[in-house]
Write a structure and sequence with these properties.
Low-confidence stretches: 317-322
Shape: elongated
Oligomer: single chain
GO cellular component, one term: ATP-binding cassette (ABC) transporter complex
Strand content: 25-35%
Largest sheet: 6 strands, mixed
Helix content: 25-40%
GO molecular function: ABC-type sulfate transporter activity; ATP binding; ATP hydrolysis activity
Structural class: alpha+beta
Number of helices: 9
Protein name: Sulfate/thiosulfate import ATP-binding protein CysA
Domain ABC transporter: 2-232
Keywords: ATP-binding, Cell membrane, Membrane, Nucleotide-binding, Sulfate transport, Translocase, Transport
Bound molecules: adenosine-5'-triphosphate
C-alpha cells in the first residue's frame, strides 16, 4: 500500500499539488488521470522521490519514505522517453540493475530469461535498443524496471510517444503483465480511454487536486462532479443535465422530458451512428449516439425535427443551468 497524505508542492507561486491525499492499495493498477498540468507527474515523481514535497507524508508498505532517496524506495520507473543504454543489448539492459546489485550470474540469467518471456522479447535479447520498435523498447524498459523486484512500479505516460494501434496493444499487454506479476503499479495518463481500459482504480486529477477516486465503472456511472463526468467520456447536456450521448433516445413523438431538436448531421461510425442535434429552443447543440439499427429504423433525414430525451442520468451530476 502506498499512502499519500496532504502532499503539497509549489513551483514558485504555482501550486502543482494542493494537499493531495490518496491511498494506493497493494497489487492494484491505479491510473492518475487528468489534463495536462493537473499535477499527475508531480505526484508520481513525489512517490518516486524524484521531487521532494513542500509538505505532507508518503509511505510505502507502512514505511515513511518522504525523506528517503529514490534508490532506497524499492521502485521501478518507466518514462515516456525511456533512456536505454544504447551500447548494451536488450539482455544486458534488462540485467543492468541486477549486475550493479552484484546478484549471482546464474540468478541473473534465470531472472532475465523469465523477464524476456514475460515482456515477449525472447527472440530479441541480442539486439541493441536502436534495432527495436518503439513498443518493444518500452517493453524492454518495463522488464528493466521489473528486474530488481520493485515494491512499486511507476509509469509516466509509458506509451505516450507511440501510435494509437501500438498503444492499444501495449495497454492490453500491460493489463496481462499486471495480472501475472501483481506489482503495485501507478500509471500516469491524460488519456481517459487508456485509464478506463487498463486500470482497476482511477484517481482523477485537476489543478493539483484529486477530484475522485474509484473503479472505472464508479467514475463513468457515478461521477462526483461535472469535471469527472466530462473528462471520462463524451457528454451531452439536455435540460441542463449532463448525460452520455449513448443514453439519449430519439423519437418522432413527444414524451415527458423530451426536447425538440433539428437533425443537423448524421455521422456513421461503423456500428454506431452519431446524430448531431440542434435544440429548437436555442439550447446548446448536442450529439446522440445510437446504433445503426436504430438509425435505420428511424430513417433519419437531415433537417427534420424530432424529440430527444435521456434514458439514464448518471450519478448526482447536474450541469449548471444556462
Ligand atoms: N520543475 C518545475 N518548475 C516549475 N514548474 C513546474 C515544474 N514541474 C512542473 N511544473 C508545473 O507544474 C504543473 C504540473 O505539472 P505536472 O507535470 O505534474 O502535470 P501533469 O498533469 O503531469 O501534466 P502533463 O500531462 O502535461 O505532463 C504544470 O503546470 C507544470 O508547468
Amino acid at each position: 500500500m502506498i499512502t499519500v497524505s496532504q502532499v503539497r508542492k509549489n513551483y514558485g507561486d504555482f501550486v502543482a499539488l494542493d494537499g493531495v491525499t490518496l491511498d494506493i492499495p497493494s497489487g492494484s493498477l491505479t491510473a492518475l488521470l487528468g489534463p495536462s498540468g493537473s499535477g499527475k507527474s508531480t505526484l508520481l515523481r513525489s512517490i518516486a522521490g524524484l521531487e521532494s514535497p513542500d509538505a505532507g507524508i508518503i509511505t510505502i508498505n507502512g514505511e515513511d519514505v518522504t525523506g528517503i532517496t529514490p534508490q532506497k524506495r524499492g521502485i521501478g520507473f518507466v518514462f515516456q522517453h525511456y533512456a536505454a543504454f544504447k551500447h548494451m543489448t536488450v539482455r544486458d539492459n534488462i540485467a543492468f540493475g541486477l549486475r550493479i546489485r552484484k546478484r549471482p550470474k546464474a540468478e541473473i540469467k534465470e531472472r532475465v530469461d523469465e523477464l524476456l518471456r514475460i515482456v515477449g522479447l525472447d527472440g530479441f535479447q541480442m539486439r541493441y535498443p536502436a534495432q527495436l520498435s518503439g513498443g518493444q523498447r518500452q517493453r524492454m524498459a518495463l522488464a528493466r524496471a521489473l528486474a530488481v523486484d520493485p515494491k512499486v512500479l511507476l509509469l509516466d505516460e509509458p506509451f505516450g510517444a507511440l501510435d494509437a494501434k501500438v498503444r492499444a496493444d501495449l495497454r492490453e499487454w500491460l493489463r496481462r503483465l499486471h495480472d501475472e506479476v501483481h506489482v503495485t503499479t501507478v500509471l500516469v495518463t491524460h488519456d481517459q480511454e487508456e485509464a478506463l481500459d487498463v486500470a482497476d482504480r482511477i484517481a482523477v486529477m485537476n489543478r493539483g487536486n484529486i477530484e475522485q477516486v474509484g473503479s472505472p465503472d464508479d467514475l463513468y456511472e457515478r461521477p462526483a462532479n461535472d469535471f469527472v463526468m466530462s473528462f471520462l467520456g463524451p457528454v451531452a447536456t439536455i435540460n441542463g443535465v449532463m448525460v452520455r450521448p449513448h443514453d439519449l433516445h430519439l423519437d418522432r413523438v413527444h414524451h415527458p422530458g423530451a426536447v425538440e431538436v433539428t437533425v443537423d448531421r448524421i455521422v456513421r461510425l461503423g456500428f454506431e451512428v452519431r446524430v448531431e442535434l440542434v435544440p429548437v429552443n436555442g439550447d446548446q447543440r448536442l450529439s446522440a449516439q445510437i446504433t445503426r439499427g436504430d438509425a435505420d429504423d428511424l430513417n433519419l433525414v437531415r433537417g427534420e425535427q424530432l424529440y430527444v430525451r435521456a434514458t439514464h442520468i448518471p450519478g448526482i451530476v447536474h450541469a449548471a443551468a444556462h
